[in-house]
Please model this.
Amino acid sequence: MNDRYHALVSAASFVLFGITPLLGANEAAAAASVPVTVTNTPLPVQGTVSVGNAVTSPVNVRGVDEPARQPFVMFCGLGATELSPGNAYCYPHINGLYQSQGGNVPAGKRFVIETVSATYNGDPGIKPASILLETQVANTGTHTYFHANSDGSTCCFGGDFWSFVQPVRLYADAGNNLPSVRLILSGAPTDGNFEVYLIGYLVNL
Model:
């Protein structure tokens, strides 16, 4: 009985201590770093993915809508003929002066307007009564009014000079005749000019 008991104990000890090194070897192999090659792009991912972003080794990112990546300016100018009624629309374009319609925001883009700058030079005593910028984003129109300041008479023209520069945050989408600027004067000038700049950048939609 004792011999049989000792034999069973010895056999169990052999199996137990013989398997333990094998388990340790398997765990070490599993913990080792193994290079992985990904052949399909993009890689489908399911579940939650965590990206380490330690201060000592940060993850580099890039702002796709960074203003400096797609700077954009629209300009419009009106002359004496367009201003003579005392009420005129100006449709800013990326080039040219007077335009009968707008719509130069590139397709697939949104124009982020950060600055509106305008000047008016006209007959003495006639001033800009209202300057209206109309834009449209996501099928919703917006109206923004601006006030011009008098800079007195000019050196090269006998009339008065008005101007303004205003920081804004407005948006204009493609696919319509906007943005547009409406200038309403206090009278009907016989001479003069009006210029407006919309300054900002484009973002991808």
Remarks:
- Strands lie at 71-78, 87-90, 109-122, 128-137, 140-146, 149-153, 160-173, 180-185, 192-204.
- Residues 71-204 form a domain with the Jelly Rolls fold (CATH 2.60.120).
